[in-house]
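ARCHIVE CARD
Drawer: 12
Card no.: 0347
Subject: one protein chain, sequence and derived structure
Cross-reference: see card 0346
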Amino acid sequence: MARTTSSSPAGSAASNAPSGRALWLREQLERANYAYYVLDQPELPDAEYDKLFKELEQIEGEHPDLIVPDSPTQRVGGEVASGFEPVVHDMPMLSLNNGFADEDIAAFDKRVSDALGHTPVDYACELKFDGARDLAAL
């Protein structure tokens, strides 16, 4: 069962400051990362995680002095659950960012077209399997 998080940190008025909000967001994202990567028991729906992550990115973009090396925005993932053998991939999978609205997909297509210097671009699309849990459901 997914746990819910409140939309703002508890505490004094100082928690409304960007530094307090950034700290709270990092804590929420770290807890969600641990549940997802280590326990294989996601606590937050992907859309909620992405919303919190984008808010933290925005705060850090507006206040670069709040960026810390262990911020979820500065690294990928977390610990990996035990029991898996390491695998070396021939080609790395790079992040494509998230797209939840038509505008997000159109912006992605524009970035790709601009980078390649031509349009239209042909895409090969596949379902995203989110770890062993999704594969086990097949």
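Annotation on reverse: The chain is about 45% helix and 0% strand. The two ends are 20 Å apart (CA to CA).
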